[in-house]
């Protein structure tokens, strides 16, 4: 991102510098009357302003497109995140339910073992 910011700023600075240098070189190297010179300066200034406005519009369009892409990507990532969370949640709830069933089954098995042990102890006590 910082490269893009620096790139856009450098581009605009270079564009402005190039326009100014080109105007100065043209004025110094072209012999003209005062009226022609003022007209040329006015035309170059107008062209420079138009070019700057075009560059500004392009930059604004690029920024708008980038913001839209970021918003779309963020929305997509949030949706994927929600899907992942829901999938994990369902899996965890399923595992919890299976663990509860296994615990209940083990309790029942232990009750049966305990009952059998009591039955086995009862005849031994009677024999004594």
**Radius of gyration, Cα only, in angstroms?**
41 Å
The chain-level mean pLDDT equals 83
Q: What is the strand tally?
A: 0
Q: Could you spell the SSE succession in H and E letters?
A: HH
The computed structural class is: mainly alpha
| Percent of residues in beta strands | under 5%
Total domain count: 1
Fraction of residues in helix = over 70%
Tally of DSSP helical segments: 2
- Net shape: rod-shaped
Provide the low-confidence segments as ranges: none
Distance between the termini: 90 Å
Q: Largest sheet at a glance?
A: none
Textual characterization of the structure:
This protein has 128 residues and is an all-alpha fold. The protein has one domain (2-127). 95% of the residues lie in helices and 0% in strands. It is rod-shaped. 0% of the residues are buried. The mean pLDDT is 83.
């Amino acid at each position: 991102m910082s490269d893009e910011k620096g790139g856009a700023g450098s581009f605009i600075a270079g564009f402005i510098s190039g326009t100014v240098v080109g105007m100065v070189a043209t004025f110094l190297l072209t012999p003209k009357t005062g009226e022609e010179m003022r007209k040329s300066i006015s035309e170059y200034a107008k062209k420079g302003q138009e070019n700057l406005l075009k560059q500004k519009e392009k930059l604004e369009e690029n920024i708008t497109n980038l913001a839209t892409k970021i918003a779309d990507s963020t929305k997509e990532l949030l949706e994927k995140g929600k899907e992942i969370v829901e999938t994990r949640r369902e899996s965890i709830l399923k595992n919890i339910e299976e663990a509860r069933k296994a615990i209940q089954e083990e309790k029942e098995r232990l009750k049966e073992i305990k009952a059998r042990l009591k039955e086995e102890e009862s005849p031994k006590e009677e024999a004594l």
